Amino acid sequence: MAGQEVGLHDIYQQVKAFAYGIWRKRWYGLITAWIISLVGWGLISTMPYKYEANARIFVDTETVLPTIARNLGIEVDTTKKVEAIRRTLVTRPNLEKVIRRSDYLDRLASNEVAMSSMIASLKGGIRIQPLEEGMYNIRYETDDARLSDRQRAEVVKDVVNTLLSFFLERSSDGGGQGLRQGQEFLEQNVKEYADRLSSAEAAHAKFMQDNLDYIGGNSKFLTRLTDARQDLRETRSKISELKVLHQTLQEQLKNVPATTRSAKSAFGRSRGSKDPLEERLSDLQKKMDALKSLGFTNRHPDIRNVNRQLAAVQVEVDEKQAAVAAELKDAAATGRSSSLTTETPNRLYEQLMLENIQTLAQVKTMEQREQEQIALAEELDEKAKKVPAIEAQQSALKRDYNLVRKTYNKLLKQKQDLSLRAEVEGADEVSFKVIENPIVPQQPSGPNRVLFMSAAFIGALASGVGVSLVFSLLKPVIITVEQLRSQFDLNILGNVTRSFSEQETRQRNIDMLQVAAASAGLFIVFGIFLVIDIFGGQA
Q1: How many domains would you assign to the chain?
Q2: Of 345, 374, 398, which closes a domain?
Q3: How many helices (H) does the chain have, and how many strands (E)?
Q4: Which of 214, 393, 403, 521 has the most Cβ atoms closer than 10 angstroms to its Cβ?
Q5: What does each C-alpha distance from 29 to 17, 25, 26, 509, 530 come to in angstroms?
C-alpha cells in the first residue's frame, strides 16, 4: 500500500512540474493559440454555405396496362422504365437545358469550357433517390462560391423544379415515337443479321467443301497415317528380302555355266542321224530276241552265231566310244571345238536367270511402291499437322454462325414483341404524382461552421498547451526537492521557501492580468465570430 502511495505522489509531482513548465512558457502557448484560432476561424468563415432543395414524387406502378400486357405475353417492367427516366434526367442535353433555364447558371456558363464544368458540377450535386413504397426524392445542393447565399438558394430550387418538370414530361410521353424508332431500328437490324446469317451459312458450306478431307478430326488422319507407315514398313521389309534373294541368285549364276558341252551321239554323230554300228547292234539285238522267242537256248547254233556277231560289234562300239571320249576330253581341256561335241543351253542357268529377272522386277516394283507410300505418309503427316488449324477455323465459323443466328432469332423475337407492344401501349404504364414541390431553402444545409469553429478553437488551445510544454521541456527547471534528489546524488538537508517582495508580487499580478486578458480576448473573438456567423453570415 505504501508503495502505491509513493507512486501516486510521483505522478502528482510530475503533473505539477509539467503544469509549472506550461505556466512558465504561457506566452508561447497564448501566441500559438491566437494564431491558430484566427487562421482557422478565417478559413472556416470563407467556406461557402451549401443550399439544398428537394422534391418528392410518388410512382404508381399498379396500373391496368402492365396486367393486360402480361396477359398478352409482353413483359412490361415499370420499374425499369422509371429507372430509365431517372437516368435520362442527368444526361448532358437535359443538364444544358437546366442551365439555360436558370439565369444565374446561364451567366456562369458563358463558354463551352464553363458549360462542361457546370454540367460536371450539376452531375455531382443532383441525386435522384428511390425511397420506400414507390417514392422518389429529387435533391440538388450546391456551394458554388461564385454565387451568393441567396442566389444559391434560388438556384437549387430552380434546378430541382426543372428536373421535376423533365421527370413528368418523360413519364407522360406514351412512347409512340420511341416505339416507331425501335421498330425501324429492329427491322434494319433484322435485315442486316439475315444477310449476315446467309453469308455465314455460305462461308461454312464453302469451308466444308474446301476442307472435306480434313473433316472428321485428327484421329482420322492418325489412323490413315498409321496404316500408311505400317504398309511402308512391310514394303521395305519385302524389298530387303527380295534383295537378299537377288544377291543369292547372282552368286548361284556365277557358279552355273550358261551352256553345256556334250557329244553329238555315242558314236560321234549327231543325235538326228543313225550310226551304222548302232543299226547293226540294234538289228542283232532284235534277231536275238526273235530267236529266244522261238524257244531256242544259248546252245543253239543260231544263238551262238548271233552272240559272236554281237560281241564283235560291241568291241567296235567300245573302241569308237573311247575315241569320242578322248576327243571330248581334249576339247574340254584346250577349249577347242570338236566335230564330235556340241554346246546346248543350260536349263538350270536359264531357270536361275529367269528367277533373277523376276526378283529384280519385283524389287523395282516394290521400290516404286515404297516411294509412293513415302509420299502418301508425308502427305498425310502434313495434313494431320493442318488439322488443328482447320478445326480452329471450323470452330470459329461455327461460333460466328451460332452467334449470328442467336442474335438474329433474338432480334426477330424482339421485333415481334415490339409490334405487339406498340398495339397495347396506348396508355401510360405508370402514374406519377408530385407529393412535395421544391421551395427556396431558408437555411443552408452545411457546412456547420459553429462546430468547425469550436473544433478549431479547442485545437488551438490544445496546440498552445503543447507548444508551452515543448518549450518548457527544452529548457527545464527544478521546482521541487524531489526533482533535485532525482537529478543529483547528494544529501539534501532542507529547503527554503522563496519570499516575494512587494514589487515582485505586483509584477506577478500584472502578468496574471495580462494572461487573463489575452485569454479572455481570445474567447471574446471566438464569440464574435460565432455571432457573425449565426446572425450575419447568411447574406
Answers
A1: 3
A2: 345
A3: 16, 6
A4: 214
A5: 17, 7, 5, 19, 23
| Cβ(140)–Cβ(127) below 8 Å | yes
Based on the fold, state whether residues 35 and 98 are members of the same structural domain.
Answer: no
* CATH number for the domain that contains residue 55: 3.30.1890
Q: Which amino acid is at 303?
A: I
Asked whether residue 298 is assigned to any structural domain, the reply reads yes
Nearest of 47, 46, 34, 49 to residue 457 by alpha carbon = 34
Phi and psi, residue 260, nearest 5°:
-125, 145
**Would you say how long the chain is, in residues?**
539
**DSSP secondary structure letters along 348-372:** HHHHHHHHHHHHHHHHHHHHHHHHH
Which of 376, 411, 436 delimits the end of a domain? 436
Co-location of 13 and 39 in the same domain: yes
Domain that holds residue 305: 259-345
How confident is the model over 56-81, as pLDDT tens digits? 888 766 554 555 555 555 555 556 66
Whole-prediction pTM value? 0.42
Q: What's the number of CA atoms in the CB half-sphere (13 Å) around residue 14?
A: 7
167/199: higher pLDDT: 199
Q: What is the pLDDT of residues 133-148, one digit of tens each?
A: 778 888 888 888 788 8
pLDDT for 36: 92
Instruction: Please give the angle made by the CA atoms of 96, 99 and 102, to the nearest 5 degrees.
Output: 150
Residue 250 lies in a domain: no
Domain assignment present for residue 366? The answer is: no
Which of residues 369 and 3 earns the better pLDDT score?
A: 369
Contact 285, 310 (CB under 8 A): yes
**Is residue 454 located within the same domain as residue 432?**
no
For residues 373 and 228, the answer to whether their CB atoms sit within 8 Å is: yes
Q: Which residue has the cell 470459329?
A: 396
Give residue 291's Cα distance to chain centre: 120
Q: Is residue 20 part of a domain?
A: yes
Q: Which three cell numbers stand for residue 274?
A: 543313225
